[in-house]
Design brief:
The complex is a heterodimer. Chain A is mainly alpha-helical. Chain A is 70% helix and 3% strand. Chain A is built from five helices and two strands. In chain A, α1 (10-35) runs antiparallel to α2 (41-71), α2 (41-71) crosses α3 and α3 (82-112) packs antiparallel against α4. Chain A starts with 9 loop residues before the first helix and ends with a helix. By secondary structure, chain B is mainly beta. Chain B starts with a helix and ends with a strand. Chain B has a twelve-stranded antiparallel beta sheet with strand order 1-2-5-6-8-9-10-11-12-3-4-7. The chains are: A mainly alpha, B mainly beta.
């Protein structure tokens, strides 16, 4: 008897779902904010602010998920081969790391930018900046944030794709993480 | 560049030429700074500057409240740190540099002093529109033969036909001039 639960707890499942939705929304906003012309300045500004808001929420949710992981063991990965199980554990570890790293890099990128625009949650709650504008640091942070973000998206897509594949192969993978029951 | 040439380039323009009572100083972006700032949604302030301008100041450093100033800025030389914003400011919706390559201010102090400085009132021409404009100037410090002056005034950009992005960018734009002159 492993002592592991059969599925993730309800709060963990909800945090996972909210995190996934926010990652997708943050990606969509990042594409929009860059594509919007300066002539649509208000829309551009708002998409940047929402992108930063959702990114910081991803960070908060990920920290909450990690907090839950410290208090509750993960369900057993059954129905897949040991090498696949090891790969899944590694993949989840890297996903957690990227879910922390990408928002942090974005937060620092916003601070290092030459034209300092404050970071707020939903334009209401100010989030303090820790860095002064630093063009040299910004030149390093911005592409690093982008590369890490695309790595996160690629890995999250593979994570979701493999979960669906296992589900369709009859392995009860989705039931552990999805649904409200 | 030799020291003599450097001195001629940097210091000589700010040395006075004798007038009747006041002294005449000519300065540009090498000796002074003309900046502007705007508020955004009450959340933050952005700042920019003009990287090329020519100004003439007639002043008696002992009685600066009798000063007069004339300044011409090259609007295409506007700069602001936000990516893409410099081109936006050059565009038709803002300084419209293709049609209005310069902006100009000419003003005179009225001989009076107020709390915080002495007023300089005159005419500001931006985008071909001329409106009364008032700045408040102050002598910040005078040290080692150099007097440091600052002047500030708020223009309403809408009065000059700059009405774009009014939700995001305040109508009031603060203009500031900072110059050090050898007295």
């Amino acid at each position: 008897m492993s002592g592991r639960p059969e599925r993730w707890s309800r709060p963990q499942r909800r945090l996972h779902a909210w995190g996934a939705v926010l990652v997708v929304l943050t990606l969509g906003l990042s594409l929009a904010m860059v594509a919007l012309p300066m002539s649509q300045l208000l829309a551009k500004f708002l998409t940047y602010q929402l992108h930063k808001t959702f990114g910081l929420l991803v960070l908060i949710i990920t920290l909450a998920r990690l907090g839950y992981r410290l208090t509750r063991r993960a369900p057993e990965l059954t129905g897949i081969s040991p090498p696949m199980r090891r790969a899944a554990r590694w993949g989840q570890g890297v996903l957690y790391a990227l879910l922390l790293l990408v928002p942090l890099l974005g937060y620092l990128t916003a601070q290092a930018a030459a034209g300092p625009v404050p970071t707020t949650l939903f334009l209401v709650i100010p989030v303090p900046h820790l860095l002064e504008p630093n063009p040299a640091l910004y030149a390093w942070l911005r592409p690093t944030h982008q590369i890490a973000a695309w790595s996160l998206i690629a890995l999250a897509a593979a994570h979701a794709g493999l979960a669906l594949r296992h589900h369709w192969q009859g392995v009860p993978m989705l039931e552990r993480i999805w649904g409200s029951g | 560049m030799s020291r003599r040439a450097l001195f001629a380039l940097v210091v000589l323009p700010a040395l006075p030429a004798r007038g009747q009572e006041r002294l005449r100083y000519v300065f540009d972006q090498n000796l002074g700074r003309i900046a502007f700032s705007a508020r955004h949604l009450g959340l933050f302030t952005s700042q920019g500057q003009f990287d090329r301008f020519q100004a003439t100041l007639l002043i008696d450093p002992a009685n600066p409240q009798n000063a007069s100033v004339e300044c011409v800025v090259e609007t295409a030389e506007v700069s602001i740190a936000f990516p893409g914003a410099t081109d936006l400011l050059r565009s038709e919706a803002y300084f419209d540099v293709a049609h209005h390559p310069t902006a100009r201010f000419a003003g005179e102090a009225n001989g009076l002093t107020e709390a915080g400085g002495f007023p300089i009132a005159g005419q500001l021409a931006v985008r071909g529109i001329t409106r009364p404009f008032r700045m408040t100037a102050r002598l910040i410090e005078r040290q080692g033969g150099v007097a440091h002056f600052q002047a500030e005034g708020d223009m309403l950009r809408g009065e000059f036909g700059m009405v774009a992005d009014r939700v995001l960018i305040s109508d009031a734009i603060r203009l500031s001039v900072d110059v050090r002159i050898a007295v």
